[in-house]
Each structure stands twice: as structure tokens, then as C-alpha cells.
Amino acid sequence: MGNLWIDILPLAAGSEERLDFATQKPEALLERTIKASSNPGDVVADFFCGSGTTLAVAEKLGRRWIGCDLSRWAIHTTRKRLLGIEGAKPFEVLNLGKYERKYWMGATFGGKKDEQRTIYEYIAFILKLYGAQPLSGMQHLHGKKGKAMVHIGVVDAPVTIDEVNTAIEECLAVNQSELHVLGWEWEMGMSPYIVQEAKRRGIKLLLLNIPREVMEQQAVDKGDIRFFELAHVEIDIKKAEGRRVTVELTDFAFPYADLIPEDVREKITKWSDYVDYWAIDWDFRNDTFMQGWGAYRTRKERKLPLSSDEHTYDKPGVYTIMVKVIDIFGNDTSQTFPVEV
Ligand SMILES: C[S@@+](CC[C@H](N)C(=O)[O-])C[C@H]1O[C@@H](n2cnc3c(N)ncnc32)[C@H](O)[C@@H]1O
User: Fold this and answer.
1) Residue 260 belongs to a domain with what CATH number?
2) Cα separation, 256 vs 215, whole angstroms
3) C-alpha dihedral over 225, 101, 90, 35, to 10 degrees?
4) Distance, CA 279 to ligand 1 centroid (Å)?
5) Which pTM does this prediction carry?
6) Are residues 171 and 223 in the same domain?
7) pLDDT tens sequence across 247-285
8) Which of 11, 55, 66, 69 to mutate to test the pocket of ligand 1 (most atoms within 8 A of CB)?
């Protein structure tokens, strides 16, 4: 090839490939550069991946890939695009927001003080915003709000199932029956299983997101901070002869409804309008989510099926189904459900 490539045209207005992403490039262009500079099995990276053209082409050409972007919209567009590629290998979406949070924590509560002190002040700050009183002398229970004990998750890691269980143990030990856990991120598959499990043990458990506004001085000063319960998913598992299973999505509780601009909210008439895409891993093993079935809205097809295709398990057994719902704002909610076939 010469230096000037004029044989590849920009995407035409009505092109099938077009995703309405302002800077989108034609796949043919990336195909040429990827073929010229890598071999199948190599890793191709685009750290400003936009609508994901590089990654989609890398996937189609049998390369492995890494993509990054700071825009949630870019990630959302890219994810849907990659999932739409027939036979695409499983991939993970990781959120590195914790660096920003760590920086905030250091800048706000750090300084010359020791680490223990920093954590203590961070917890006191979140408790205050939540309207809870600090508690001393406890291991995992940091505060109390009304009748509820409060546990605060750390800034740089997801709240784990073990962590919640330890807090539950401590509640039981001190004869308390209500626990609120506040976290930035959550171990995959945490809810609703853990809430039911807590209920069985006599604890009313509430899981709440710490909103990113806590890092904004203005919002804090205005007293605008609200903590919302985790979104949650309900499904119906239908079993048939021969280890055949279908899943129906029966509810998606979207906690931020009153934060949505009114003109958008007016158009939403039922819970499923919040769902942009949902997918199933039929045999989740506490590792990467492997999509076995999935459905999403496209610009052409706005209707979303709420029942999956049928899945047949090869062997009888107890499996974990993970259902992942991506809402229309690109938030990710994953939940696990056991199934015996
Ligand atoms: C021109 S577009 C991407 C084009 C894409 N590489 C392609 O070839 O089609 C640039 C992207 O960079 C992202 N971006 C800008 N600053 C960034 C940063 N500091 N870290 C990660 N992504 C960033 C933007 O959100 C935008 O999606």
C-alpha cells in the first residue's frame, strides 16, 4: 500500500455498520491495519476504543484484544457491538473507577496521617452522609441508623459476600436484626441470594450503593446525597423434559427512576423499558460471565424478548444461572440463580 489510502470510503449515512458514534471508522480500515501489524492470537489494544471498531475487527480476525474508554456510552456501544458478533469469545468489562475514588480518599482524608486514621475518617464521613451515628468497639459494624446496624465497604474493592456474612455474624452476636451495607461495587452474584439468606437467619438486610456524588463537594454541601438500593432482577425458570430450561425475565427493579429527566421518564411505561440488553450464562462458575444467550435492542429493532431460547444441559446436576441486565443507561446488574436439572 502507498501512504495515502483513498480506496476505503468513510461510512455512508445508511450503512449497516453505522452506530451513530461521532468518530466511528469503517471496519475495512481497521481490518487493513490489524492484518498488516499482527497475527491471529496476538493482542490488539485500543485504549480510546470509542464505538469499538478496532476490537470488533480484532475479534473477527481471531486476535485477542483490550479496549478502554472513559465514556460509559462508548463502553455500552462497544459491548453491544462485540456481543453481536457471531461466535465472539467471552470477555469481561472492568471498571477502574476505584483509582478516582482512591485519589479522592487520599486527597480528602489522607495527608500526613496514618492509613488507619484515613479509613476511620472516610467511614465517619460516609456515615454522616447516610445519617448514621458512628459505633465503636465493633469489628465490622461501623455505625447505627435508627434500628439498623451499618457496614461501609472500602473505597477500592467490591463488597464481598464473605464481608456481608461477617457483618451478619456480628449483628447476630450483638442481637441486632437489621443491617444496612453501603458499597461502591459488589461481588458478582451477591444479590438477591444473600438478602434471602440473611432473612433466613433473622436479619433484615439492605444493600445500598454509595453514589459518586459523595466525591463532589458541592453536592455534599447541598445535602443532595441519596443512597439507592441495588437494582435487582427477577426471573422465572421453566424446566422441561430432557434437561431443557428457559428463563423468563419477570422484573427489573430500577432504583434511580426519580433521577431520570422527566421527558425520558414520561416515555417509560413498564419495567422492561429500562432494560436495554439482557443475557444468560447457563453455567456460571464464579469466574468470567460467559454469555450463552442474550438479547438486546438495536436501533432498528426496539422490541426486546423477555423469554430466552431453550437451553439443554448435557448432564443432570445443580447449575448456577447468571442473568446480566444492562439498563438503558449502561449500568450492569448481575444476579445468580440455582437450577437443578
Ligand atoms: C476518536 S474516539 C475513538 C476512536 C477509535 N479508537 C476508533 O478507531 O474508532 C476517542 C475516544 O477516546 C475516549 N477518551 C478520551 N479521553 C480518554 C481518556 N483519557 N481515557 C480513555 N478514553 C478516553 C473518548 O471517550 C472517545 O470515545
Assistant:
1) 2.60.40.10
2) 19
3) 130
4) 27
5) 0.74
6) yes
7) 999 999 887 777 778 888 888 899 999 999 999 999 999
8) 69
